[in-house]
Design a protein that fits this description.
It contains three helices and 45 strands. With 706 residues, it is an all-beta fold. The chain has one domain: Maltoporin, Chain A (Beta Barrel), CATH 2.40.170.20. The chain starts with a strand and ends with a strand. 46% of the residues are buried.
């Protein structure tokens, strides 16, 4: 027989949901269940079995977390906190870190998950240990490090739209004191969008990522880790969908809301609404070209006992060019009293950043200093058809000192106290491409104290109850697009967020059930947002502080082992947001992409039979997003209705965890959903929509060698 099936039980070394995950959310190693903050963590093995290929996939399995796009810039939204700007010069309030290095350029974030040890998602302001503009939280990607044991892995995947993913890694000792690891990945596809006018494909990818690491025992007490990485991303960018607002039979009349949402209407130029897969553009090439490289040197000096001095010096370079067809059609737009125009824009940035962190850590405390120097050059926003746009240079320097301590006040109760003081200086020089005489220089320096105070109760051997009050801040920012008046690029004020949170973490029923739950309230001040206001008696777009917001919510993660071979995970999130603003277009509105209800989970069953020397596992996943608005103005036609994404995976793995074969389908029902939008109702009578990924399928084979 081709497959011999026996009822004898077999075990594998595959990742189990109940496995302990060690994290460094507090700059020291701890079990995730022992960290008194809201954190979701995934091991590299678990992410591989979930099929995560890019960082944004993690959002599908974390409550109150979304991944979206704005102007082609990828960004995370945590508990309703996100960036409201499409310029490449701004930094997001949800930080992205890779191996403890802050990534300060949007769009330059690592494009692929490669040889990952784990990913940590911290929800809430991180104003103490990860203080760089993290009012919303952070996503931390940690790669596998060199070890004293030889290991290697390789895999090959083929899927929908001729997707090919090939990756491999190898590492081990070079001598008694030197270890190394190299990892490579190639990911390409033909794109899932098609131009309805000429068949051209968009939303395609051609990515290559590589990383090399060497770890050296310099002395018995001093270890050095040296990392170099590089990546390229090309292909055709995702094209916008057009959502028209006018009745095609009578363009003087606006469509009914149901018809707008059903994509039955046209723009002011008569262009029809388009669907996610069938788009429209007269632009022959929508670029998404990213070249990035960097590296870091990390030194750990074990001074005595539990005390370690750590130095991390990092350098990152990003070159990004992105183009877009905002009208998503082949028809020139003709607003009232203006000549027909064909909207086409591009964004470019070349950024260099240097970071230095120095910290001293003990068993229950850490103190340190942080330096950030970022130079963005060729920071361009170009309205190509109009010969208009801006070119800017932006320099950012930031210094910070920080510390945090856990202090027991009884055998079972301890206090967490931490603070960070940040000083920052930013300088902008900006010109108008169509007006060589225009030049503006803006700048500021600011300081901020952020902090965290927590009370934690170890209620039992496997239960932790915690309560935190913490403050985070995001420094002021400049607008670098559509600027043609002196003062229009003046910086916004810093935004701040104070979080009040209480939660519990517990292992129950002989550790067959893990629970992590929390409830929180946000006092969110001086939100930075693009808006239209009067500057020099002209109505102009500026980046301004539009008011305050309040958010309250709750979330819970459950992981359980229901029976031998049967395990599952369930995440539940609820938030309620409201903006309080003197500007009527924002006052009383919800923050964007903040569904009241989010649900996610998976069920995995590993059959107890021996099948050709291995085991078969079946996995199903789901992600549910409740109704939410795509923009902070809460236009009813830009409200995404609730949707659910389903996925499935079948995997065979040999009993020695050496070889595997798997087949998968993501977004089984081919659900159409939006991940971002902008509104051009005045004067063009349409909106642009960024669509989410459709149904994908694939086959993957791989091998591990130890």
């Amino acid at each position: 027989m081709a497959a011999a099936v026996a009822l004898s039980c077999s075990t594998t070394a595959s990742a189990q949901l109940m496995d302990e995950i060690v994290v460094t959310a507090q700059k020291r190693t701890q079990d995730a269940q022992d960290v008194p903050v809201s954190i979701s963590a995934f091991s590299g093995e678990a992410m591989a079995q979930l099929g995560f290929q890019v960082p944004q996939s993690v959002a599908q399995q974390v409550p109150n977390v979304l991944f979206g796009e704005d102007g082609g810039l990828p960004q995370f939204n945590i508990r309703g906190v996100q960036l409201y700007d499409f310029g490449s010069g701004n930094e997001p309030p949800v930080g992205v870190y890779v191996d403890e290095i802050y990534m300060g350029t949007l769009g330059g974030h690592v494009s692929e998950l490669l040889d990952v040890e784990r990913v940590e998602v911290l929800r809430g302001p991180q104003g103490t240990l990860f203080g760089r503009n993290t009012t919303g939280g952070l996503v931390h990607i940690i790669s596998r490090k060199p070890t004293n044991a030889f290991s290697a892995s390789t895999s090959l995947q083929y899927g929908a739209y001729d997707q090919v993913i090939a990756e491999g890694a190898v590492g081990g000792p070079l001598s008694d004191t030197v270890r190394a690891r190299i990892a490579l990945k190639y990911n390409r596809d033909d794109g899932w969008q098609k131009n309805i006018y000429n068949g051209q494909r968009f939303a395609s990818k051609k990515a290559f990522v590589g990383r090399a690491q060497v770890e050296v025992d310099i002395t018995p007490d001093v270890t050095g880790l040296f990392n170099f990485h590089a990546s390229t991303l090309g292909g055709e960018a995702k094209n916008l969908g057009l959502l028209g607002r006018l009745d095609p039979a009578n363009m003087a009349q606006e469509c009914a809301l149901a018809d707008i949402r059903a994509r039955r209407c046209v723009s002011g130029a008569g262009s029809p609404s388009t669907s996610p897969k069938r788009t429209a553009t007269d632009i022959p090439h929508l670029a998404q070209d990213v070249d990035a490289h960097g590296g870091f040197a990390k030194f750990d000096w074990r001074i005595n006992g539990d005390v370690t001095l750590t130095s991390i010096t990092g350098y990152e370079y990003t070159s990004r060019f992105y183009s877009q067809d905002p009208d998503a059609s082949i028809s020139p737009l003709a607003p009232e009293n203006l000549l027909p125009i064909n909207l086409y824009n591009s964004q470019a940035v070349k950024a260099k950043q240097l970071t230095q962190e120095l910290r001293l850590a003990g068993k229950n405390w850490v103190v340190g200093a942080f330096y950030f120097d970022d130079k963005k050059r060729d920071l361009d926003f170009d309205l190509v058809a109009l010969g208009d746009g801006n070119r800017a240079r932006l320099d950012t320097r930031s210094w910070a000192i920080f510390g945090q301590i856990d202090q027991h006040i009884s055998d079972s109760v301890y206090v967490t106290a931490g603070a960070r003081y940040t000083w920052e200086k930013k300088d902008l020089q900006i010109t108008d491409i169509s007006n060589p005489a225009f030049f503006d220089a803006e700048g500021f320096d600011t300081g901020a104290l952020t902090w965290r105070l927590g009370l934690n109760w170890e209620a039992g051997r496997d239960t932790l109850v915690f309560a935190n009050v913490s403050k985070g801040f995001k420094s002021g920012a400049f607008q670098t697009s559509f600027v043609d008046v002196i003062g229009q690029a003046a910086p916004s004020k810093a935004e701040t967020l104070i979080s009040y949170e209480a939660g519990v973490k517990s292992d129950l029923f002989n550790r067959d059930l893990k629970v992590s739950a929390s409830t929180f309230y946000y006092d969110y001040r001086d939100l930075q947002m693009l808006t239209v206001t009067n500057v020099g008696n002209q109505l102009l777009q500026i980046l301004d502080n539009i008011g305050d917001a309040r958010t309250f919510g709750a979330e819970a993660d459950f992981t359980w082992r229901a029976a031998e071979g049967l395990e599952g995970r369930l995440g539940i999130g609820y938030i309620d947001t409201k903006i309080n603003s003197p500007l009527p277009q924002f006052d009383g509105k919800e923050t964007a992409r903040a569904p009241k209800l989010t649900l996610n989970g998976l069920v995995r069953y590993t059959a107890p039979w021996d099948i050709s020397g291995g085991q078969l596992s079946l996995q199903g996943t789901f992600t549910h997003m409740g109704d939410h608005f795509l923009t902070p103005q809460n236009q009813p036609y830009l409200k995404q209705k609730a949707y659910t994404l389903l996925g499935s995976r079948v995997r065979w793995q040999d009993k020695d965890d050496r070889y595997f074969v798997e087949a998968f389908v993501d977004n089984i029902t081919d659900k159409e959903y939006a991940v971002g939008a902008f509104d051009l109702s005045a004067p063009f009578q349409f909106s642009g929509v960024f669509w989410g990924t459709p149904r994908l399928w694939g086959l993957r084979i791989g091998a591990n060698f130890d």
